[in-house]
Amino acid sequence: GAVVSQHPSWVICKSGTSVKIECRSLDFQATTMFWYRQFPKQSLMLMATSNEGSKATYEQGVEKDKFLINHASLTLSTLTVTSAHPEDSSFYICSATDLAGAKFHNEQFFGPGTRLTVL
Amino acid sequence: QQPVQSPQAVILREGEDAVINCSSSKALYSVHWYRQKHGEAPVFLMILLKGGEQKGHDKISASFNEKKQQSSLYLTASQLSYSGTYFCGTATQGGSEKLVFGKGTKLTVNP
After folding, report:
1. What is d(CA B61, CA B97) in angstroms, rounded to the nearest whole number?
2. Which residues of A touch B47 (CB under 8 A)?
3. Cβ(B5)–Cβ(B54) under 8 Å?
4. CA angle A63, A43, A80 (to 5 degrees)
5. In angstroms, rounded to a whole number, what is the distance separating the alpha carbons of residues B32 and A95?
6. At B101, phi and psi to the nearest 5?
7. Most buried residue, A53, A76, B18, B32, by CB count within 10 Å?
Protein backbone atom coordinates (compact mmCIF):
# COMPACT_ATOMS: atom_id res chain seq x y z
CA GLY A 1 0.00 0.00 0.00
CA ALA A 2 0.85 3.66 -0.08
CA VAL A 3 1.40 6.11 2.74
CA VAL A 4 -0.47 9.35 3.14
CA SER A 5 0.27 11.72 5.97
CA GLN A 6 -1.73 14.59 7.40
CA HIS A 7 -0.61 17.44 9.55
CA PRO A 8 -1.56 18.37 12.15
CA SER A 9 -3.23 15.38 13.79
CA TRP A 10 -5.40 17.65 15.84
CA VAL A 11 -5.90 21.36 16.27
CA ILE A 12 -7.87 23.52 18.64
CA CYS A 13 -8.51 27.08 17.56
CA LYS A 14 -10.61 30.07 18.44
CA SER A 15 -13.66 31.04 16.47
CA GLY A 16 -12.84 33.34 13.59
CA THR A 17 -9.33 32.07 12.95
CA SER A 18 -8.14 30.09 9.93
CA VAL A 19 -6.66 26.64 10.06
CA LYS A 20 -4.54 24.94 7.43
CA ILE A 21 -4.38 21.16 7.10
CA GLU A 22 -1.75 19.47 4.95
CA CYS A 23 -2.09 16.17 3.14
CA ARG A 24 0.98 14.52 1.68
CA SER A 25 1.51 11.37 -0.32
CA LEU A 26 4.85 10.04 0.87
CA ASP A 27 5.80 7.34 -1.57
CA PHE A 28 3.77 7.99 -4.68
CA GLN A 29 2.57 10.85 -6.82
CA ALA A 30 -1.05 11.67 -6.20
CA THR A 31 -2.75 12.97 -9.31
CA THR A 32 -5.94 13.37 -7.34
CA MET A 33 -6.63 14.03 -3.69
CA PHE A 34 -9.99 14.03 -1.97
CA TRP A 35 -11.05 15.87 1.15
CA TYR A 36 -13.69 14.42 3.45
CA ARG A 37 -15.24 15.38 6.72
CA GLN A 38 -16.70 12.96 9.18
CA PHE A 39 -18.94 13.68 12.14
CA PRO A 40 -18.97 11.27 15.08
CA LYS A 41 -20.46 7.89 14.23
CA GLN A 42 -21.29 9.02 10.72
CA SER A 43 -20.07 8.27 7.24
CA LEU A 44 -17.41 10.08 5.27
CA MET A 45 -18.79 13.01 3.36
CA LEU A 46 -16.83 14.11 0.32
CA MET A 47 -16.13 17.83 0.37
CA ALA A 48 -14.02 18.32 -2.72
CA THR A 49 -11.82 16.70 -5.32
CA SER A 50 -8.41 18.21 -5.85
CA ASN A 51 -6.33 17.69 -8.96
CA GLU A 52 -2.74 18.85 -9.16
CA GLY A 53 -2.39 22.16 -10.91
CA SER A 54 -6.09 22.88 -11.30
CA LYS A 55 -8.94 24.25 -9.25
CA ALA A 56 -10.67 21.93 -6.85
CA THR A 57 -14.14 20.64 -7.60
CA TYR A 58 -16.46 21.13 -4.64
CA GLU A 59 -19.46 19.02 -3.76
CA GLN A 60 -22.87 20.62 -3.57
CA GLY A 61 -23.35 22.53 -0.37
CA VAL A 62 -19.64 22.98 0.38
CA GLU A 63 -18.56 26.61 0.40
CA LYS A 64 -15.44 27.00 -1.68
CA ASP A 65 -14.58 30.35 -0.12
CA LYS A 66 -14.69 28.84 3.33
CA PHE A 67 -12.82 25.65 2.57
CA LEU A 68 -9.87 26.67 0.41
CA ILE A 69 -8.08 23.83 -1.30
CA ASN A 70 -4.72 24.05 -2.98
CA HIS A 71 -3.01 21.16 -4.75
CA ALA A 72 0.33 22.69 -5.54
CA SER A 73 2.29 19.56 -6.30
CA LEU A 74 1.80 15.87 -6.94
CA THR A 75 2.51 15.11 -3.30
CA LEU A 76 0.82 17.93 -1.40
CA SER A 77 -2.68 19.27 -1.03
CA THR A 78 -3.82 21.71 1.62
CA LEU A 79 -7.23 22.49 3.07
CA THR A 80 -7.66 25.83 4.79
CA VAL A 81 -10.74 26.34 6.91
CA THR A 82 -11.23 30.09 6.91
CA SER A 83 -12.96 32.00 9.69
CA ALA A 84 -13.66 28.78 11.53
CA HIS A 85 -16.74 28.44 13.70
CA PRO A 86 -17.75 25.77 16.22
CA GLU A 87 -19.95 24.05 13.64
CA ASP A 88 -16.80 23.43 11.57
CA SER A 89 -15.48 21.16 14.30
CA SER A 90 -15.10 17.76 12.74
CA PHE A 91 -12.69 15.04 11.67
CA TYR A 92 -11.15 16.01 8.34
CA ILE A 93 -9.60 13.24 6.28
CA CYS A 94 -7.79 13.36 2.98
CA SER A 95 -7.20 10.56 0.57
CA ALA A 96 -4.89 10.28 -2.38
CA THR A 97 -4.91 8.27 -5.54
CA ASP A 98 -2.75 7.93 -8.58
CA LEU A 99 -5.11 7.57 -11.50
CA ALA A 100 -2.38 7.93 -14.08
CA GLY A 101 -0.03 5.35 -12.64
CA ALA A 102 0.00 1.63 -13.01
CA LYS A 103 1.16 0.86 -9.49
CA PHE A 104 -2.24 1.16 -7.88
CA HIS A 105 -5.54 0.39 -9.50
CA ASN A 106 -7.51 3.44 -8.49
CA GLU A 107 -7.29 2.68 -4.79
CA GLN A 108 -7.70 5.64 -2.49
CA PHE A 109 -5.32 5.77 0.43
CA PHE A 110 -6.42 7.76 3.43
CA GLY A 111 -4.39 9.98 5.67
CA PRO A 112 -4.70 9.57 9.44
CA GLY A 113 -7.11 12.49 9.72
CA THR A 114 -7.11 15.82 11.51
CA ARG A 115 -9.47 16.51 14.37
CA LEU A 116 -10.46 20.16 14.37
CA THR A 117 -12.07 21.71 17.42
CA VAL A 118 -13.24 25.29 17.17
CA LEU A 119 -13.95 27.01 20.47
CA GLN B 1 -26.79 8.43 -4.30
CA GLN B 2 -25.45 6.91 -1.13
CA PRO B 3 -25.13 3.11 -1.21
CA VAL B 4 -27.07 1.18 1.38
CA GLN B 5 -25.16 -1.04 3.73
CA SER B 6 -26.61 -3.88 5.76
CA PRO B 7 -26.64 -4.79 8.51
CA GLN B 8 -26.03 -1.57 10.42
CA ALA B 9 -24.30 -3.47 13.18
CA VAL B 10 -23.28 -7.00 13.98
CA ILE B 11 -21.81 -8.65 17.06
CA LEU B 12 -19.78 -11.80 16.72
CA ARG B 13 -17.80 -14.13 18.85
CA GLU B 14 -14.24 -14.77 17.82
CA GLY B 15 -14.17 -17.39 15.09
CA GLU B 16 -17.63 -16.68 13.71
CA ASP B 17 -18.36 -15.48 10.19
CA ALA B 18 -20.08 -12.34 8.95
CA VAL B 19 -21.34 -10.90 5.69
CA ILE B 20 -21.73 -7.20 5.03
CA ASN B 21 -23.71 -6.06 2.02
CA CYS B 22 -23.54 -2.88 -0.02
CA SER B 23 -26.26 -2.03 -2.55
CA SER B 24 -26.57 0.81 -5.00
CA SER B 25 -29.45 2.21 -7.01
CA LYS B 26 -27.02 3.18 -9.76
CA ALA B 27 -24.80 1.14 -12.06
CA LEU B 28 -21.38 0.85 -10.49
CA TYR B 29 -17.90 1.03 -11.93
CA SER B 30 -16.14 -0.08 -8.78
CA VAL B 31 -16.67 -0.84 -5.12
CA HIS B 32 -14.08 -0.07 -2.44
CA TRP B 33 -14.11 -1.56 1.04
CA TYR B 34 -12.55 0.09 4.08
CA ARG B 35 -12.36 -0.62 7.80
CA GLN B 36 -12.19 2.21 10.28
CA LYS B 37 -11.37 1.91 13.95
CA HIS B 38 -12.55 4.52 16.40
CA GLY B 39 -10.67 7.79 16.07
CA GLU B 40 -8.59 6.56 13.16
CA ALA B 41 -8.70 6.99 9.41
CA PRO B 42 -10.20 4.30 7.18
CA VAL B 43 -7.87 1.54 6.09
CA PHE B 44 -8.15 0.23 2.56
CA LEU B 45 -9.19 -3.42 2.34
CA MET B 46 -9.84 -4.04 -1.31
CA ILE B 47 -11.28 -2.71 -4.52
CA LEU B 48 -13.52 -4.58 -6.90
CA LEU B 49 -13.83 -3.46 -10.45
CA LYS B 50 -16.61 -4.00 -12.85
CA GLY B 51 -16.99 -7.51 -14.14
CA GLY B 52 -18.14 -9.98 -11.53
CA GLU B 53 -14.91 -9.79 -9.65
CA GLN B 54 -14.12 -11.61 -6.46
CA LYS B 55 -11.12 -11.01 -4.26
CA GLY B 56 -9.72 -11.95 -0.93
CA HIS B 57 -6.75 -11.96 1.35
CA ASP B 58 -6.32 -13.68 4.66
CA LYS B 59 -9.85 -14.47 5.74
CA ILE B 60 -11.52 -11.43 4.24
CA SER B 61 -12.99 -11.65 0.77
CA ALA B 62 -15.48 -9.75 -1.32
CA SER B 63 -17.60 -10.13 -4.40
CA PHE B 64 -19.12 -7.67 -6.84
CA ASN B 65 -22.29 -8.44 -8.75
CA GLU B 66 -22.61 -5.62 -11.25
CA LYS B 67 -26.00 -6.78 -12.51
CA LYS B 68 -27.43 -6.59 -9.04
CA GLN B 69 -25.44 -3.43 -8.35
CA GLN B 70 -24.21 -4.81 -5.10
CA SER B 71 -21.14 -6.04 -3.32
CA SER B 72 -20.66 -8.26 -0.31
CA LEU B 73 -17.77 -8.46 2.12
CA TYR B 74 -17.15 -11.82 3.76
CA LEU B 75 -15.29 -12.15 7.03
CA THR B 76 -14.55 -15.72 8.02
CA ALA B 77 -13.24 -17.02 11.32
CA SER B 78 -13.32 -13.49 12.67
CA GLN B 79 -10.56 -12.20 14.89
CA LEU B 80 -10.69 -9.54 17.59
CA SER B 81 -8.76 -7.23 15.27
CA TYR B 82 -11.62 -7.29 12.79
CA SER B 83 -13.68 -5.06 15.06
CA GLY B 84 -14.43 -1.67 13.57
CA THR B 85 -16.78 0.05 11.21
CA TYR B 86 -16.77 -1.18 7.64
CA PHE B 87 -17.58 1.22 4.85
CA CYS B 88 -18.20 0.54 1.22
CA GLY B 89 -17.42 3.33 -1.22
CA THR B 90 -18.90 3.22 -4.70
CA ALA B 91 -17.82 4.86 -7.93
CA THR B 92 -20.15 5.14 -10.87
CA GLN B 93 -17.49 5.95 -13.42
CA GLY B 94 -13.86 5.21 -13.91
CA GLY B 95 -11.23 7.87 -14.27
CA SER B 96 -12.27 10.09 -11.37
CA GLU B 97 -12.78 7.53 -8.62
CA LYS B 98 -14.97 9.91 -6.71
CA LEU B 99 -16.48 7.69 -4.05
CA VAL B 100 -19.77 7.86 -2.26
CA PHE B 101 -19.65 6.02 1.05
CA GLY B 102 -22.35 4.04 2.76
CA LYS B 103 -23.28 4.74 6.36
CA GLY B 104 -21.11 1.92 7.60
CA THR B 105 -21.55 -1.38 9.40
CA LYS B 106 -20.23 -1.59 12.92
CA LEU B 107 -18.67 -4.96 13.60
CA THR B 108 -17.85 -6.01 17.15
CA VAL B 109 -15.91 -9.21 17.72
CA ASN B 110 -15.93 -10.48 21.30
CA PRO B 111 -13.67 -13.11 22.82
Report:
1. 21
2. 105-107
3. no
4. 35
5. 13
6. -95, 145
7. B32
The answer to whether B16 touches B107, Cβ cutoff 8 Å, is: no
Task: Provide the residue count of chain B.
Answer: 111
Percent above pLDDT 70 for chain B: 94
Q: Does residue A102 register a pLDDT over 70?
A: no
pLDDT at A27: 85
Cα–Cα distance list, B89 to A79, B1, B101, B102 (Å): 22, 11, 4, 6
Per-residue pLDDT tens over the stretch B75-86: 999 999 999 999
Task: Give how far B50 is from chain A: nearest CA, Å.
Answer: 12
Which three-class secondary structure state does DSSP give residue B102? coil
In Å, what is the CA distance from A45 to each residue of A91, B89, B102?
Answer: 11, 11, 10
- B87: nearest CB among A1, A44, A46: A44
User: Could you check whether the bond before residue A8 is cis, i.e. omega within 30 degrees of 0?
Assistant: yes
Within the 41-70 window of chain A, which residues sit less than 8 Å (CB to CB) from chain B? 42-46, 49
Q: Cα separation of A81 and A67, whole Å?
A: 5
Q: Do residues B101 and B86 touch, judged by C-beta distance below 8 A?
A: no
Say whether pLDDT at A18 is over 80: yes
Buried b (16+ CB within 10 A) or exposed e, B13-37: eeeeebebbbbbeeebbbbbbbbbe
pLDDT per residue as tens digits for the range B64-74: 988 889 999 99
